[in-house]
Structure prediction request, 397 residues.
Amino acid sequence: MAGNTSTFTTIIKRVAQDNSDVVLDWNGILLNAIYEDKTTPPVASRNMAITQTAVFDAINSITGTYKNYHFTGTAPTIVSAEAAAASAAHQVLINLYPGQKSYFDNALTASLAEITDGTAEDNGVTFGRTVADDILTFRSGDGSSNTITYTPGTNPGQWQPTSPGFASALLPQWGQVTPFALTSGDQFRPDGTPALNSADYTTEFNQVKDLGSKNSTTRTAEQTQIARFWADGSGTFTPPGHWNQIAQNVTAEKGNSLVDNARVFALLNISLADAGIAAWDAKYTYNFWRPITAIQNADSDGNANTIADATWTPLLTTPPFPEYISGHSTFSGAAETILTGLLGNNVNFTTNSLGTPGIYRTFSNFTNAANEAGVSRIYGGIHFNSANVEGLATGRS
Prediction:
């Protein structure tokens, strides 16, 4: 296994559930892989969708409960759904994360040890691989590996690389990736940002300048905690992974059937993957500057009511891609909508975050969690409010 084995053991404990099944187990293994690889949020969302649709199609082909996502073949008559699910997840993951193959091999061995040896298990392993290969082939030409040339702007309002790393723009091609369910990345493209000289922009500018500053005196201790709790940066499960962790907690409590859990995670991750594509389409369509650039260079924006502060820095490190719309908000709006539709919105749950060890936050519904995740980016100083509001709306679409 690539990386630190003790780290993997720790993270597995954080996502394990007492009332688990093979779907939840392999969703946890997937999150561990994302953590270890430091996968970026859009790529993580794609990888989760591929894995979970393969798991769903493997199980559902056996139970015949719902319509498959893509696989059209026929399952063997004698077959273990648990073996098929584990094998499908394993086959996807060794292709997406080949450097972690020994970890996945060990996990598959552990999964199969829980299943009675024999024809049903053997057929399940073979069938799971077949379904996984079908999904992998289906997504192989989706444009995710394409590269395009992106040149940052220099005019007021245009995105520019930001301190401290001044990294190049991340994944400018991602809005052109073939969606899993949407017709195209621009299907729900929002209308755009407020004009720099507008009253709306002035309000949003001053809001994030005040609340999002690293040295803010008006941001409360809880708001600071919220910003860090939902940051989900490198070395975490990422924002879409955080929503998978929430889904694990809730589905484990509900005690769903195997196929119903598989369906929850397939639909959740299809929506998250498409949310990432939609958000990145908007980001690289509007190419809007981040608060740190806007505030430090406000004397160039043509707005007498925005006052520059050349020393202003945000609470959180600004990620290397355009501001509008918020990826966090788009992911959260999508997750909220799917989970509410499948599990209801009167669901009490508690979740933690790798970014704030030992801190837990409790919610009475998915909507409240999504709204908090969205506004956290203002508290963190890396988004304006319209990016949050319209990101949530895009995700919910």
